[in-house]
Amino acid sequence: xxxxPIQCLSLxxxxxxxxxxxxxxxxxxxxxxxxxxIVTNRSSIIICPDMNSIVADKKYWTIQCMPLSRFxxxxxxxxxxxxxxxxxxxxxxVTTRHVWQDVVNLPDEIIQKSSLHYILVDLxxxxxxxxxxxxxxxxxxxxxxIMRFLLSSTQIGDKExxxxxxxxxxxxxxxxxxRQLYRENFKGTAKKKLMDIRLASAILKLIESECSVxxxxxxxxxxxxxxxxxxxKNEIGLTPSEIRRLExxxxxx
Length: 253
Fold this sequence. Notes:
Elements: H1 5-8, E1 14-20, E2 27-30, E3 37-40, E4 44-48, E5 61-67, H2 68-83, E6 103-105, H3 108-111, H4 116-125, H5 131-138, H6 142-153, H7 164-171, H8 175-185, H9 190-208, H10 213-219, H11 225-236, H12 240-252
Antiparallel strand pairs: 1-4, 1-5, 2-3, 4-6
Organism: Serratia symbiotica
Protein name: Helix-turn-helix domain-containing protein
Keywords: DNA-binding, Transcription, Transcription regulation
């Protein structure tokens, strides 16, 4: 019987990296998609309801986890960045297998990266089998679409329209429902995420350009240089000039 993974996946599930140091010891869990028991003695990535569903001897297994919602953000961010690259084929058709596979077994060269974040990025960029199918399924989910929409919204010309009311209208939903949909799938609020994206874009402009702080501020949607400086100071503890000074020190080093 075919089970539609999209209907079974929840962004409240956990994406788990399990690295095994002894093939004699197995890890077990329950698949959130097929409902079958997962048993493996290989270093793998699995999706499970939460960490408590993992049964493994911690002496032989190193386990890291990330909410599926966080991984969806990472996937959308990488896709957005690659979508702006000439090396990325937006019309490329990727087929997804009809049979869901519960486990992604990892080769040694990927395991050596040790960090879950780095491993996930590597798997996305290299379209690793099975894992690429998982990504394609997440790309069909509405939360992924919302995240891509928010990431692309900073590219619109009229910075005055970077409000949730305006963006939700462009997305085709009422503002309250748009906010609710975001909260149900991601931590925080859509407004905070939009502010984070705007700030990250402004920091990048500070580093990559010689524009004045005022020009960077206005171009990034802030009302003034003082508004931008205050936001930057509150969020990361640095002023625009300190960021530029730090960037020069790192570059020269």
